[in-house]
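Record 1 of the preview.
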Amino acid sequence: MKYLSLILIILLAAPVFAQEQNIFAPGTSFKNETADTIRRLQRESLEDQGFIKPEVIELSFVRPSYMEGTQFGILMAVPDVVSGCWDVSALEYETSFIEQYYMDVKVKDYKRTPIEVENVQFECPTQNKMTTALIPLDAQDLKNRQVRQIRFTSGFVADYYDIRHLENGISLVPQSMVIFRAKTLTGPKKDQMRLDFGKGGLVTLHVPMAKRGDDVAQALRNFAYKHLLTASPDMSPSVRRDGSVSMTFEDQTGRVAARIGEDGYDLMGEILVPRPFDGPQGRGLTNVPLHVYVTEAGKQL
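->
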């Protein structure tokens, strides 16, 4: 009986010992649930204090009006939109140059804080708020430093973007997009973010499926303002014989112009245009989605 008890103790303890060993065994597919739990609790403890670590960050090129020459910016934006009685901070990050050929961008978190008002129903702000951060850069400086890659990291996840210097611009080619995702990919293979320094200024938006009589102008203006385009000297819409509409706007950041690919245009999105229809209750209006394209100023689709 004494030996039987000893054997039972060894058999019961063996699986536990093996499981503990698998947690730390390299090269296995065992999921470290303890580490995942610790990270989850750490994330939740930060969120309790208002700090949030983003799960997705969109990257895009921008060129504000104060930038010149080969200066440009990488805009990091968290797509989660906050509205109501909440305020959000900028996205906190730090940059460094490592081993000559690499630039590291380490994103930490952002903070969401409540706005105190007396009447939540009527006094909360109605506009949407988005967390962003701008990384100011200079293409010539990157070239002089021989920087070949930008490494974006957030927590334990990293995405690498290779740098390619163009004759009059720059492009970033993502090697992965787990958290840091290019908002627009252009080029022959649609595999790169691209910025041409000479493409700032004016762009033209087109609605080729518009028909004569469609009320397109105001919807197109609202669409343009949403994409940070501003009024050009000539804001009047151009209407072709088939009813298609185009309007020209100022692209001060160069962000929209950077979307234009090798084909000379880019599909930006849709607008809703009311059109009459006959229904059971008589004639009414229904919103019809129409595609919006962008080209360089004055170009036709």
